[in-house]
Amino acid sequence: MKFDDILTELGEFGPYQKRIYFLMCLAHSCIAMQILAGVFIQATPEHRCAIPDLPNDSFASQGHWHDALVNASIPWASGDQTFDQCKLLDIPDGRHNETVPCEKWVYDKQSFKRTFVTAADLVCNKRKLVTYASMVLMGGMLIGSLVLGILADTLGRRKILVLSTLGHFTASLCVPWTRNYTMFVIIRFFVSFFGTGMFLSAFVMGMELVGPNWRKFAGNAMNLFWSIGLLIEAGLAYMLRDWVYLQIAISVPLLPVFFCYFAFIQESPRWLLQQGRLDEASKVLENVAKKNGVVVPETIKNLQDVVQEKAEKNLWHLFTSTTLLIRSLIIFLNWMVSSMIFYGLSLNSGDLSGNIYVNFVLMATAELVSFLFALLVMDITGRKMLHCYSMVVGGVACLATMFPVMYGGNDVNWLTTALSLVGKFGSTVGFAVIYVYAAELFPTVLRNSIIGICSVCARIGGILAPFIGDMIKFGGKTQVLKNT
């Protein structure tokens, strides 16, 4: 007898599974807000050099006298009708072209009262540090995927879920109190490290808890909560406009989530069976039957037959079959590419023309629509076909952004944004499908480890995403690089 047969008798998606599954979905909303918080807390507003000996200098004009002083102190940026952001005229009357680097800056506060970038002055020659911070964040996800994904297979899903949630909450709440770049980067590393353990464990537990007929729904509905979390974050960011308050606001909900996991989540019975812990698995399944209002099946009282179907395999089994190895490598590669486009467009949504909050909401909405589309169409087209076509659509749309950027003016900026949204749609559908596809392809004993390795490949793509936009700075052509 297979474990799925037991779930069919207990109810594939009964009241018990629905309550636990909802709690697993909350993990996705919380983690989404933390990972994409960098769009707001690491945003770089318009800025220029602070005028020396003017203590109340501001980016906004204070009158004609202030405009005249700025014109006399700040050079024009070459090839643009804007002030240079990093240089100051060395001669007060501005009659000469000698310039010196800025020592202090003033920032436009229309969109943000304060970001970490403005607090630490991570502009001009320190601009790269913002990209490095995003790299370290994705690096934390990479290490977390590898370490915590494998630990969840050996120590248990619940234990890693609870510990990761506690670590994620603690690290997230420490971020607002950092006042230097090094500590900010280190703590954000642990935010993503523990967040990934929380994310992976919640995803695998959610998939293992439901019956086969509901597994597609379970894999995609979790993704909807990711987008919902981003929409909530956009609203909070718009209202608060301060990186410290925003970080606190998205960290506090993790505490009740932790207590819910600690109090209400039981170990995955499927994992307990694989470990040969029959009595514990039986107790969990009896509780499922009780909460679902069904009579405890006799099969639960004798789980030995289910356990005997366990395949004695480990990760090295992937290398014993050429076909299995090739298919695994294809899955890993697709995770990396999907992640690079997915996170690249999200993390760089603030660089699109227009309002950063509107752009972020548009990206989150595109994700939400994409996840719903994948949920509705996946069974009709099949996993493989839908993933391939969606990636082609996303890739073509991203490549097409080069035409309005290189050959159009500001009046077609909307087209660049529209193409980016189409690219986001395609990459998100592809990402949603590959998640479910990978979880269905591999056996329980390998599932968390394989999903962990897939997530490692995804984080490699994620690490590359922040750097794409910084590889070359050719004016507007930067956006093309970010989208391709």
TrEMBL record:
SUPFAM superfamilies: MFS general substrate transporter. Residues 82-484 form the Major facilitator superfamily (MFS) profile domain. CDD domains: MFS_SLC22. Keywords: Membrane, Transmembrane, Transmembrane helix. One of its GO terms (molecular function) is transmembrane transporter activity. It is a multi-pass membrane protein. It is found in: Membrane. GO terms for cellular component: membrane. The chain crosses the membrane at residues 20-41, 129-151, 184-205, 217-238, 244-264, 324-344, 356-377, 389-408, 414-438, 450-468. This is Organic cation transporter protein. It comes from Elysia marginata.
